[in-house]
Amino acid sequence: MSQTIVITGASSGFGALTARALASQGHTVYAGMRETIGRNAPQVQAVADYSAEHGVDLRAIELDVNSQDSIDAAVARIEADRGTIDVLIHNAGHMVTGPAEAFTPEQLAELYDVNVLSTQRVNRAVLPGMRRRGEGLVVWVSSSSVKGGTPPYLAPYFAAKAGMDALAVSYSTELTRWGIETSIVVPGAFTSGTNHFAHSGRPADDAVVADYETKYAGLMEQVSGKLAALEPADADVSSVAAEIARIVALPRGERPYRVIIDPSDDGSAEVSAVADRIHREFYERIDLPDLLTIRK
Predict the structure, then answer these.
(1) Contact 232, 192 (CB under 8 A)
(2) SS3 72
């Protein structure tokens, strides 16, 4: 069944791959991105070219997750065009690398804005329509760093993704009685095929960075190299998009709560299994097990 899907941060990486995979399944997919008439104009053209070449319904749309006005305008346009938004995929995010102390509080606030607060803005625009209909699917693209291995010099990004994941967990039980499903997709540290590391931000305090270099010289390059060495040769970043497409295609009420795609196996699957089991058991102890799943 064809659905109307919105993906944030779909100009590149997981978002762009997922948009194409879902459009190829026959869905109408809105690839959200900012600066569609500026720096992302080539990505807008690439979306149009892919849609025409493959005969699919893939559309770029201006959607800046840091702006409520931009989000509201995009959602209003989609709902005017299609009537409903069936699936929302929270994919927008940004990575920074460097010693945690060298980032200013303002930099951390900006990072949390992109990775965490953005999801709240988009939810407040999209969820009312889903609640009125009594159905929908929200997919959150998390990170294995939330519960798995946490190499150094990535602390602000890890903290932001942990905040987003925690928000997803809480939202999941607050949406079930509305008939809205939640799936949390957890990619591992893919070191190729995305622009996370290549476009990562850097600390503003160069003096502190220099101090850390006296004890941790070249550490970020070492971390990048070690992560790349852990990644199997056959690791394919498109497997994340394929898994999201599989989840969307599943019948209502049968979507998984959490799926981990981590070829490097940093331990996230083991820790998540325990955490999610405790989550379920706690809701049973407080006599609210119905909040764990939607009613078909």
Answers:
(1) no
(2) helix
